[in-house]
Design a protein that fits this description.
With 478 residues, the chain is an alpha+beta fold. It is 42% helix and 14% strand.
């Protein structure tokens, strides 16, 4: 990439490169193309042979680089990000690491510091200088210690990479490492110990004590009360957006995360004869499946047969078929269940990333629609805050409340209850599941039994399918 490709902003910036072709200089006999003649920084660079980089894909969907104040590349950081993204496959953290490194260099820029110069007293060295800046931000309440430590970790990672692969040898210590023993509970709840290497750059963070007001499940989740669940569904019905209503109900009835919910396919929906509509039919998600899952973890999500049936009715509707006509996915079995009016995914599936130009779309329409829900709730004289991910915790609590009767009747013990919830939510550790039980113990009953609530949701979806069918009958050209 040439210097000056991006406009000089006077600051360090992270820049995403989309659908990037990967190549390297090579002998002419091995070349697949030639680099064009060009001028870089006032210097003429002649044409030379190039070929694909060994053992890597020929293209990268999304790669972050960091530009310097004059518009050129910060070579070290950009190469570090390249290695993490391409060679190590760590795509999900690249944007955050790039952002932290940009912040680091801009702080040094403002202080007139060279990121390679580790001469002088400790407080003048780049790493300690940056720590002092973050410490001030923590005191001012701008950031939290955990955020500061994530930024420090990105900086340490880059310097370690420079030392190991680029021969970087600072004049003095960049930090002081220490090894400490950490006690933790494994996925089965047993105490284990491990040695952790840390530095004197990180801030000590005390473990947060959960007062019982939320559930730790991939973040802080707040189950929605039974009353507010009813209000949410009523608001969604009033807004008459079939897709949003279905998406919310799928999340409430299965506990799917948004990424999985929005990437289920036509073939995932059972369309055969159903004799028992309460039967649970599995949908495979994650690696090797059609629908995506957090971290690619392969798992099976159970969905009631009645919901499969109602989704199948929706998939046969003119409303859905109109959206399919605008979709770039041509295989009907691989077609997404949820499409926007223009036929685009609400969340770009990993398998179709290239088809959609490596777009970063990840459910923004769902978050934007929440504003309409809040406005409708206000019109109804009601108001409460929720996030899409809270529906997962709500499902877990509804499920737990339904089975508490069996526990109280002695037909199920607590371990069996936890194991059932763990399997339905696909938790890797029972410790996460235990958070649901603790939440229930610390809070009043928040929901009705899941089976009874599902009957209510089933009627709502049936009425919605009837509504869109009647609209099509009245307006056959719509």
């Amino acid at each position: 990439m040439d210097n000056g490709l991006y406009g000089a902003s006077g600051r360090f910036e992270k820049v995403p490169l989309i659908n990037l072709h990967v190549w390297a200089r090579c002998p002419e006999a091995e070349a697949t193309d030639w680099m064009a003649e060009r001028v870089v920084g006032g210097t003429y660079v002649p044409s030379y042979p190039i070929g694909p980089v060994a053992h890597t894909a020929d293209r990268i969907g999304r790669l972050y680089v960091i530009t310097e104040p004059d518009g050129g590349l910060w070579k070290e950081a950009s190469l570090y990000l390249y290695e993490r993204t391409v060679e190590l496959g760590k795509h999900s953290t690249a944007a955050n690491i790039a952002g932290a490194l940009v912040d680091f260099r801009n702080v040094l820029l403002d202080g007139g510091k060279d990121f390679r110069n580790f001469n002088g007293p400790k407080f003048e060295r780049p790493t300690y200088y940056y720590k002092a800046h973050l410490k001030q931000q923590i005191r001012q309440g701008v950031i939290r210690k955990r955020t500061a430590n994530r930024k420090i970790s990105a900086v340490v990672g880059m310097y370690r990479w420079m030392a190991e692969t680029r021969g970087f040898k600072p004049e003095q210590d960049m930090w002081v490492s220490r090894v400490r023993s950490v006690t933790y509970l494994d996925r089965y709840g047993f105490a284990q110990h491990k040695l952790v290497v840390c530095t004197d750059l990180t801030f000590k963070v005390s473990a947060e004590i959960n007062p019982g007001g939320y559930i730790e499940d991939g973040g802080k989740l707040y189950p929605i009360t039974k009353e507010n669940q009813d209000l949410l569904i009523t608001a969604l019905k009033n807004l008459e957006n079939t897709e949003m209503l279905l998406i919310h109900i799928v999340a409430l009835v299965t506990g799917m995360r948004m990424q999985s919910c929005l990437t289920i396919r036509n073939s995932d929906i059972y369309k055969g004869e159903i004799t028992d509509d309460t039967r649970l039919i599995g949908i495979r998600i994650g690696e090797g499946a059609q629908a995506d899952a957090k971290g690619g973890k392969t798992q099976t999500v159970l969905m009631p047969a009645w919901l499969h049936q109602q989704l199948a009715i929706y998939l046969s509707s003119v409303r859905y078929q109109t959206r399919v006509k605008n979709s770039k996915i041509t295989n009907s079995e691989q077609q997404l269940v949820f499409l926007t009016k223009s036929g685009n995914p609400y969340y770009i599936p990993e398998k179709e990333a290239e088809l959609y130009g490596f777009s970063a779309e990840a459910g923004s329409a769902i978050r934007q629609f929440k504003a309409k829900v809040n406005k409708e709730l206000a019109r109804m004289g009601k108001q409460f805050q929720y996030r899409m991910h809270d529906l997962r915790a709500t499902f877990g609590m509804n499920l737990m409340d339904e089975h508490m009767k069996l526990l109280e009747a002695g037909k199920m013990n607590q371990l069996e209850l936890l194991d059932m919830i763990k399997n339905r939510l696909n938790h890797s550790s029972v410790l996460v599941t235990m958070g649901y039980l603790k939440y229930r113990e610390n809070n009043a009953l928040i929901s009705s039994a899941q089976s009874g609530y599902e009957n209510h949701l089933r009627d709502i979806i049936k009425n919605e399918n009837d509504r869109i069918k009647s609209l099509q009958t009245e307006n056959p050209r719509s």
